[in-house]
């Protein structure tokens, strides 16, 4: 008869490498403590890679590069899921996700309504920064990213080319989300959203 550890291992192996593994994936079926102990043993055996407390990786490995980690946003979203928290990327991370920067930040910063903390993932860091509910109240993913990206650039530094690129991205957003989220943004960003809403209703 297989142990709980072996059963969990078989279930993980049935999925793709590169998958993030959380205790809650198995806690209901096998019990929280049994799951935690099994994941710890599988990590000690080298089957799993521990990314952070309660976050594991079924690693994909490259002969030259070693462990291939998932992108930072995927890891951050899994941590937020575990903690039942909301997050939104800021700074260079937001610019990158909107296609306004090719720079991949070593330190990715996310606003959250969960616990503030910094988590090391290989050579990179994920920083969760406590934010007011207003900063996390955006309904649209793209409009929320646009607000953070424009804040990062700044009113005096944003170029017309950047505004055009952001508007092109925001055309994929639902108009009702834009209308809702423009009320959360500084007035100069709200004006950009307003220009786009005119495009919808002309």
Topology of this structure?
Layout: H1 4-13, E1 19-21, H2 27-30, H3 32-44, E2 49-52, E3 55-58, E4 60-62, E5 66-68, H4 72-83, E6 87-89, H5 91-97, E7 107-112, E8 117-121, E9 124-130, H6 141-153, H7 160-170, H8 175-182, H9 187-201
Question: How would you sum up this structure, described in words?
Answer:
- This protein is α+β, with helices and mostly antiparallel strands.
- Helix content is 46%, strand content 19%.
- The protein is built from 9 helices and 9 strands.
- It has helices spanning 4-13, 27-30, 32-44, 72-83, 91-97, 141-153, 160-170, 175-182, 187-201, and strands spanning 19-21, 49-52, 55-58, 60-62, 66-68, 87-89, 107-112, 117-121, 124-130.
- Strands 6-7-9-8 form a 4-stranded mixed sheet.
- Strand 8 (117-121) and strand 9 form a beta hairpin.
- The mean pLDDT is 89.
Order of helices and strands: HEHHEEEEHEHEEEHHHH
How many beta strands in the DSSP annotation?
Answer: 9
Low-confidence stretches: none
**SS class:** alpha+beta
What is the mean pLDDT?
A: 89
Helix content: 40-55%
Biggest beta-sheet profile? 4 strands, mixed
Strand order of the largest sheet: 6-7-9-8
Tally of DSSP helical segments? 9
What characteristic shape results from the CA principal axes?
Answer: elongated
| End-to-end C-alpha gap | 68 Å
Radius of gyration: 20 Å
Assess the beta-strand content as a share of residues: 15-25%
């Amino acid at each position: 008869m297989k142990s709980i550890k072996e059963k969990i291992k078989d279930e993980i192996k049935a999925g793709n490498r590169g998958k993030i593994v959380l205790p809650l994936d198995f806690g209901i079926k096998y019990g929280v403590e049994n799951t935690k102990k099994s994941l710890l043993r599988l990590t000690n055996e080298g089957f799993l890679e521990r990314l952070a407390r309660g976050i594991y990786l079924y690693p994909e490995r490259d002969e030259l590069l070693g462990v291939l980690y998932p992108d930072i946003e995927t890891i951050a979203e899994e941590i937020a899921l575990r903690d039942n928290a909301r997050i939104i990327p800021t700074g260079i991370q937001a610019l990158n996700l909107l296609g306004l920067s090719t720079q991949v930040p070593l330190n990715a910063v996310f606003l959250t309504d969960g616990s503030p903390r910094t988590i090391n993932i290989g050579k990179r860091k994920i920083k969760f920064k406590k934010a007011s509910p207003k900063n996390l109240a955006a309904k649209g993913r793209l409009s929320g990213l646009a607000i953070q990206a424009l804040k990062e650039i700044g009113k005096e530094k944003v170029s017309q080319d950047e505004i055009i690129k952001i508007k092109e991205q925001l055309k994929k957003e639902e108009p009702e989300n834009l209308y809702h989220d423009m009320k959360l943004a500084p007035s100069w960003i709200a004006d950009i959203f307003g220009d786009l809403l005119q495009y919808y209703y002309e």
